[in-house]
Amino acid sequence: MKKIHEILGLKTLKQRMVFWITLVTISSGIIGIILQSFIQYKNEQEKTINYMNDMVGVQKDYIDNWFEERSFNARSLANMDSFKTLDQEKMKTAMEDTVTNIKDLQTIHFANKDGYIEITTMPEAEGINVSDREYYSEALKGREHITDVLIGKVTKEPNIFFTSPVRNYNREIIGLVITSIKLDTINEIIERSHYRESGETYLVNREGYMLTESRFDDELINQNKVKSTDPMDIIIDSEIFKNALENKEQIGTYRDYRGEEVLGVYEWTNSDKWLIIGKMDKVELINELKNEIYGSIIIILCIVALIIFICIKLSNQIARMFDNLIKGTNTISKGNYSYRINLEKNHDLPDEIKVLCNGFNNMSITIEEKINLTEESEQKYKSLFEYNTDIIITMELEGKLIKVNNAAVQITEYPMEEIVGSSFKKFISNDKMEMTIQHFQKATKGKTQTFESVIISKNGRRIDLDIIVVPIVVNGNIIGIHGIAKDVTQNKEYQRKLEETARKLKESNEDLEQFAYVASHDLQEPLRMVTSYLQLLERRYKGQLDQSADEFIAFAVDGAKRMKILINDLLAYSRVNRKAREFTQVDSMEVLKKAKQNLEFCIEDKNASITYDQLPMIIGDITQLTYLFQNLINNGIKFNEQEKPMIHISAYEEKRHWKFLAKDNGIGINSEHKDKIFTIFQRLHSKNEYEGTGIGLAICKKIVERHGGHIWFESEKGKGTIFYFTILKGGNKNE
Ligand code: ADP
Q1: Protein residues with CB under 6 Å of any ligand 1 atom
Q2: How many CB atoms lie within 10 A of CB 723?
Q3: How far is CA 10 from CA 14, 17, 304, 319, in A?
Q4: Can you tell me which atom of ligand 1 is nearest the CA of 640?
Q5: CA 680 / ligand 1 centre spacing (Å)
Q6: Cα–Cα dist 185/673, whole Å
Q7: Nearest to residue 117, comparing CAs of 32, 69, 176, 191?
Q8: Which residues of the chain have pLDDT under 50?
Q9: What pLDDT digit, counting tens, does each position of 217-231 carry?
Q10: Residue among 628, 521, 637 at smallest CA distance from 575
Q11: Could you tell me which of 374, 317, 365 has the C-alpha nearest to residue 339?
Q12: What pairing do the DSSP bridges indicate for beta strands 721-728 and 657-664?
C-alpha cells in the first residue's frame, strides 16, 4: 500500500481516500456486472434450452403422428375388400381417391407378391420391380414399414415410403401397398417451427444427411460452405449428432454445420431412424441479453457513481475537519489560543471525527485557560512586584541584582540603573556584612533565610530591614535568589522608644517600691513610739482626765494600730518583687495545707469548711504562693454571711498554665468592680462592715503576675465568688 501511495504520489488523506474508495467501488461494480451478466446468461440459456426442448418434443410428436397417419393410409387401402380380392378397377379408384384427398401423398402403388408394380397412380411406375427394396422383404414378412429417405426409381427424387402388406381372406400375402411422400413435405412441416432469428429445427438421418432444408441457404451458399442446400446435400457431423448416435447428452453447446457456436437439443423420431435437432445461435442469445446487461450495467454504474460521490463528499468532510485541525494546530502554535473547530456547521460528521474535534477544542480551551491563568498570575505578580512598598529583588547566585522594584529605588535613594547590575553587598552596612553574606550563601544552598540587616542609603541614612531570601528553584535546580526586604527603621525606632519607656517605668516602679519600702520600714519606728506613748497615756491617765480626753486617747490608739497594720501590708506589698525568693519545685497541695494551718483560728471561729481536689506540682515562690492561697481563703471566709462558709480549691491543666479556682459561698462581688478590687487600697466596704486595708488582692495580683499568670473572678452578688488564677507551667523564665 505504501508503495502504491509513493508511485501514484498520493500524499494527502483526501487523495488516498478518494483513490481507494474509487478503486474498491469500481472493482466491486465490475465484479457485480460480471456476476449479474453471468447469472442472467445462465438463466436465459436455461430458458432457451427449455424452450427448444419443448419445441423439439412437439416436433417429434408431430412427425410421429404424421407418420402414423401416413402408415394408416397405406394400411387402410391394404385392408380394403377390393385389395383383398384384387379387384383392380376398384383398387385403382380407391388409390386415386386417396391421393386426391390426402395432399401429402405423392403416389400410391400396388406391387404384387413378386415385387412388380401392377396398379399405380403414377403410370410411369407400372411394371417396375421393387423386390430389391427393404420394405418389400418386410411386407413379405407381414410387417408394415416406413423407409428412410430413398431416391424414387421413377421420380429420382428423395422420397419416403410407407408400405403395408395385402392379405387375401386366407391371410396369405398377395402383395403390398406402397405410398410415397416427397421429402419437401417434411421440409415444410419442419420449416414451420423456425423461431427467433437463428432458431432452427432440422432432421438428420443416421448417415448424417440433413433431410430438411437449412434455414441459412443463402448465407451458406454465399460463404461457399456448400454447393446446394437441398435436402440430402448437407452432411452433419457436429458434436450433438455424434452424441445422439451414442445416445449421450441431449443438450449442449457446439459448432453446427455452419461453423457457428450454437445451443442445441435433439430427439429421435421415425423409429430412431431420424434425428430432430433444435438449435439456436449463441450470439443471438448473447445479443438478446446485451440490452438487459446494458441496463444492469447502467444501474450498477449509477450506484457506483453514487457511492463514489458520497464517499468523496464524506472524505471531503473528513479531510476538511483534518484541515481545520491542522489550521488550529498552526494557529495555536502561533500563540492564538482562541481557535475552535465549529462543529455546529458539521453536525452530521461521523462520531469518531466529532470526538477528535471535541478533543481538540477541549485541548485549546484548556491551553487558553492555562495561558490566561498564567498571564493573570504574571500580572498579579507584576502588580505585587511593582506596587509593593517592600523591596523585592531578584539576584543571581553570585549576588548580582538583576531585577528590583520601585520600592528599592525609593528606600535606597539610588537610581534604578545604579542598583541593577550591582552586587547586594554594595548596599549593606559594614557591621552587618558578614552576617548578611552568610544568610545569602545558605539561601543559595536551598534554605530560605529570615534575618534583620541594615543598608546605607545613597544619602548615608541607616535603614533597618527585615529580610527574607528564598532560593529560585526551576526543575530541581537553584538558579537564583528572590529577596523581600521590609523597611523597619521606624518600627525599630518605636521599639527603641518603647524599651526606653519600659526601662524608665521599671526604674520608677522600683523607685516607688523603694519609697514604699523605705517609708513603711522607716515609719515603723516612730509609729511604734507614738503607739507605745499613746498606750502609756491611756494606761496612766485613763479615768483621770475628763471623758472626752479618754475618748481622744482611745481614737489615737486605734488609729495608731490601724496605721501599723497598714504599714505592715504596704511593706508586704513592696516586698513582693524586692525581697522575693528563688523559684523552686512546689507542691501546691502542701502550700494549701500550710495556708489552711495559718488560718486555723479564723476557720474554727467562723465554723468554715475548706475543701480541695488533687492539686499539682508547680514551680514558684513557696512563701508568696502560701500568702496567695491564705488571702483568697481568708477573703472567702471574711466576706461571707453564711452560717457555714465553704471554700473549695481545685486546679486544671491548660496548655501553658495550671488554672486554680477558689470557690466560696460568700456575699459575692458586683462584676463592675472587676479591676477595682485588685488595685491597692481599693475596698468595696467600709472598715465598720468588714475589717481590712484593701491591699490583699493587690499583693495577690503582683504574686500571680510574678508567676507568669493572671487573676480574675466570676461572681454574682449574693451567690458566692470564684477567684481564678493561673501559674505558668515550668515557672516564669523572666524571673
Ligand atoms: P481587704 O480584704 O483588706 O478589704 P482585699 O484587697 O483583700 O482587701 O479585698 C478588696 C475588696 O474586695 C474587699 O474589701 C472586698 O470588698 C472585696 N472582696 C475580696 N474578696 C472577696 C470575697 N471573697 N467575697 C466578696 N468580696 C470580696
Answers
A1: 635-636, 639, 664, 666-667, 669, 677, 683-685, 692-698, 721
A2: 26
A3: 9, 9, 22, 14
A4: 24
A5: 11
A6: 161
A7: 176
A8: none
A9: 777 777 777 677 677
A10: 521
A11: 365
A12: antiparallel
